[in-house]
Design a protein that fits this description.
By secondary structure, this protein is an all-alpha fold. The protein has helices spanning 6-22, 30-53, 56-78, 84-110. The mean pLDDT is 94.
Length: 111
């Protein structure tokens, strides 16, 4: 199945990057890795839902999930589970996704 929703393609690429980055978390921090990945999957699900139902609150939930992921990644960097370079790279991806969501929200509000 070919995905035509640009934001979901970007989210999937970010999921793959984060999955590879978090693959070496120790058992002690497995909960953090699980929270990151589960929030990413919720983010992807909400993106598809927002595309279908056109509800602005769903898009706001997407922004909340992005903020939670940013926090989890920051904690990972603070605990030195990931390098600052990887933290920055993931942050850049999340920033781009966040901008796409806000543009999407503004477009929907202007209609």
């Amino acid at each position: 199945m070919q995905d035509k929703l640009i934001i979901s393609i970007k989210i999937k690429k970010t999921i793959e990057l984060v999955r590879k980055t978090t693959s070496n978390y120790s058992h002690e921090y497995k909960f953090l890795k699980d929270n990151i990945m589960n929030t990413f999957y919720d983010l992807l699900k909400l993106t598809y839902k927002a595309n279908i139902c056109k509800d602005i609150n769903v898009k706001k939930d997407i922004v909340v999930d992005i903020k939670m992921i940013e926090y989890y990644i920051k904690v990972s960097c603070d605990y030195q589970l990931i390098s600052y370079k990887k933290f920055k790279r993931i942050g850049d991806y999340l920033l781009e996704i966040n901008k796409m969501v806000y543009s999407w929200m503004n477009y929907e509000e202007s209609r």
